[in-house]
Design goal:
Keywords: Branched-chain amino acid catabolism, NAD, Oxidoreductase
GO molecular function: 3-hydroxyisobutyrate dehydrogenase activity; NAD binding; NADP binding
CATH topology of the largest domain: Rossmann fold
Number of helices: 12
Bound molecules: nicotinamide-adenine-dinucleotide
Number of strands: 9
Low-confidence stretches: none
EC number: 1.1.1.31
Enzyme class: oxidoreductase
Mean pLDDT: 97
Shape: elongated
Distance between the termini: 50 Å
Order of helices and strands: EHEHEHEHEHEEHEHEHHHHH
CATH class of the largest domain: Alpha Beta
Family: Belongs to the HIBADH-related family.
Helix content: 40-55%
């Protein structure tokens, strides 16, 4: 297929390269020349405008920083320049309301569109092992799935437009909560005289077991290899976790959902990020406790 790919940063660069590997003809655009040069080295055809990138495309994939940029890219450029039959796929993490608005505008202009945010970081983007949570009609999902499968290990339909974003922020809010809870438990166990490894051996097979403990342990040297073993470098940056928590709090307010633990987690990550730790993996929150 001929696919236009817009936003070739940390995530989009590897995703576009995987579309090329799967045999697609990828027309690429980014505001950064360095990102475009790398995409060219990976087999994409670079373009100098979104309009030209979308010419003749059967699908458009975007991987952009935030909702304002996503709205601007689609409303100002993609809608109108991509052929009417093209399926539009936004993989960025953005707010639910903007995702729904942009999808409504696209549908009104005669396109099919999905929101398809991802779980998995840069390594999963490069390795083609992302999980996509997709919001949109059955028909749009079916078309997007064929393309997303080249970039991920799982593609799950979450329901109507915006539901992919809803799944993503609810998941990441839960992740932040159980990461902080896990850190608290390890710190308290230590203060009560328990060795962290011993606490892990007990809790990982007891009712406190959770993903932050058994797959991503915040204590160095305990559990499988994780960013804590590398001084909290790499992994999922605190700044990105905070971005997702802010989106979650915004959505909770709009939906009138009670999220006392999510709100507390957001405020703890605000403090940690504000203290200059935005580049550290989010499990480094244990340093603050
Ligand atoms: P990034 O900043 O590395 O990449 C974004 C790219 O978009 C940049 O190359 C930038 O030049 C380009 N861009 C910005 N405005 C543009 C425009 N108007 N037209 C064309 N290109 C434009 O960010 P990233 O880490 O790749 O993240 C992208 C999205 O993926 C974000 O929404 C983020 O929340 C989400 N995400 C990131 C991770 C991660 O681990 N990095 C994990 C899951 C989801």
């Amino acid at each position: 297929m001929r696919i236009a790919f817009i936003g070739l940063g940390n995530m989009g660069g590897g995703m576009a390269a995987n579309l090329v590997k799967a045999g697609h003809d990828v027309q690429a655009f980014d505001l950064s020349q360095a990102a475009l040069d790398t995409a060219k080295d990976n087999g994409c055809t670079p373009f100098t405008s979104i309009k030209d990138t979308c010419e003749g495309a059967e699908a458009v994939v975007t991987m952009l920083p935030n909702g304002e940029i996503v709205r601007q890219v689609y409303v100002d450029d993609v809608i109108g320049s991509a052929p009417k039959g093209a399926v539009l796929i936004d993989c960025s993490t953005i707010d639910v309301a903007t995702a729904r608005q942009v999808e409504a505008i696209a549908v009104g202009a005669g396109y099919e569109m999905v929101d398809a945010p991802v779980s998995g970081g840069i390594a999963a983007a490069n390795g083609g092992t992302l999980t996509f949570m997709v919001g949109g009609t059955e028909s749009a999902f079916g078309r997007a799935k064929l393309i997303l499968e080249a970039m991920g290990k799982a593609v799950i339909h979450a329901g109507d437009a915006g539901n992919g974003q809803a799944a993503k922020i609810c998941n990441n809010m839960l992740l932040a909560i159980h990461m902080i809870g896990t850190c608290e438990a390890f710190r308290m166990a230590e203060k009560l005289g328990l060795d962290p490894q011993t606490f892990y051996d007990i809790s990982s097979v007891s009712s406190g077991q959770n993903w932050s403990m058994t797959s991503y342990c915040p204590v160095p040297g305990v559990g499988p290899q994780s960013p804590s073993d590398n001084d909290y470098q790499g992994g999922f940056a605190t700044a990105l976790m905070l971005k997702d928590l802010r989106l979650a709090m915004e959505a909770a307010e709009t939906a009138d959902a009670a999220t006392p633990m999510g709100a507390r987690a957001a405020s703890i990550y605000e403090d940690f990020n504000g203290a200059g730790n935005g580049g550290l993996d989010f499990s480094a929150i244990i340093k603050m406790l």
